[in-house]
Every structure is written in C-alpha cells, then in structure tokens.
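Whether sequence alone determines local backbone shape is best considered at the level of individual chains. The sequence in question and its structure tokens are set out directly beneath this paragraph.

===
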Amino acid sequence: MTTLDVLLWGVLPYVVIAILVGGTIWRYRYDKFGWTTRSSELHESRLLRIGSPLFHFGLLVVIIGHVIGLLIPKSWTDAAGLSQDAYHLQALVLGAIAGFCTLVGVGILVYRRRTTGPVFMATTKNDKLMYVVLVAAIVAGLATTLLGAAGGEEHNYRLTVSPWFRSLFVLQPDIEAMAHSGLGFQLHTLIGLLLFAIWPFTRLVHAFTAPLGYLFRPYIVYRSRTAGPATRAPRRGWERDTTPSPRR
C-alpha cells in the first residue's frame, strides 16, 4: 500500500463527499432559480422523447445494480442460494442492457444538443464537461461489467471494491482491498468520484429534487368552453355597469 493508494482510496472519497454535500447546500441556498434542467423541449421534442426515456430508464437500472453490487455482501447472496456464476450472469445481462440503454440515450441527447441550433446555443461549458464525464463513466461502467462477468478473483469486484465502499461509511476505509482491485475498476471508481464532485454545479443537481408537491397540491379547476346560457349579455372589460342598484 503506497502513499498514492492512501490519497486515492482513503482521502479522496471523503473530499468528494464534502464537495457533494457542501456544494449541494450552497447551490440550493444561493442558486434556487438555477436548480433546473433548463428544459429545451420547446426547441426540439422528437429526439428528446426517444433519448430521455432511454437514458433515465437505463440509469435507474444502473443505480439499482450498483446498490445491490456494492452494499449487499457476497456472503448474503451465498446464504440465499445464489451461486457466483448465477450472480455474474444476471449482472452481465442486466448490466449490459442498462448500460446500452443509458449509452444510447445519452448519445441521442448529445447528438440532439449538437445538431439543434437553439439547444446548442444554450449549451454551456459546464454542460459540455458534464457530458464528457458522464459518457466516460458509462463507458467505463460497461467495461467493468464485462470484466466482472469474466470471472476469477481478480475480476470479482465484490471482494475488493464492495468491501472498500462499505468501509467508507464506518470511517475505516479498506484501502488495501481497493488497491488490489483491477485497473478497470479503479478507473471507473475515479471517474465516478469526479462525476459526484461536479454534480452539485451542473444540471444533474435536479436529481436531488423529488416533485412530492404534485401529490398533495389541490386540483386545478378549469372553466368549460360550453358554459350554460348566461343570464345577461356579457360586457366588455371597459364598459361600466349602468344598471341602477335597488333602493333600500
């Protein structure tokens, strides 16, 4: 275990967590009007209707797969009767499908942003950096999925990356476990840390906002265009009411 290992796997994760939490709080407090995806649907909707669902569906499955793979110990799946081969098979199938959907979806969104004039004009340098890091994380994730399915202890991230990830929460990082993981897993982890470090300062921050208010807001009442017969002729807005009021 070298000094670089200590810095990368023992210090850097906590720095990223501090940036993620602190940056999110700062963004919410001082940039509430910027807490948005800056929707561009008015400029182009055809490609957006294809790319956005693909990207979000794939990303959701990817997140669920990471939660299962990183937080659930290997001993638990063994106790449940799930063999190592069966686990890697389902990880390969689901991970490949989810990764492919995510990659195709983000590819369509990038193509749309680059080829649609008004959307491209609204693209900032911040957005470009975010897309580069996001695509790199997806590609590296697909590569590690194939490596994990290859089998063998050197490709079993549940013996290296997962114990290291869980050890971060008890403030006792298992640096040696992460140092012995494959180069592909280390690269994917570093890209993921970079993505979380820039997360609060990009449009990705909208993922932390759940639209719970929609569940409890009152109904919106609309007036029907085919209203019943009026009791009097409608007046224009600038006309005064000359009807004498009844005397008491």
Notes: The chain is about 60% helix and 0% strand. The chain has a mean pLDDT of 82. The CA atoms of residues 1 and 176 lie 6 Å apart.
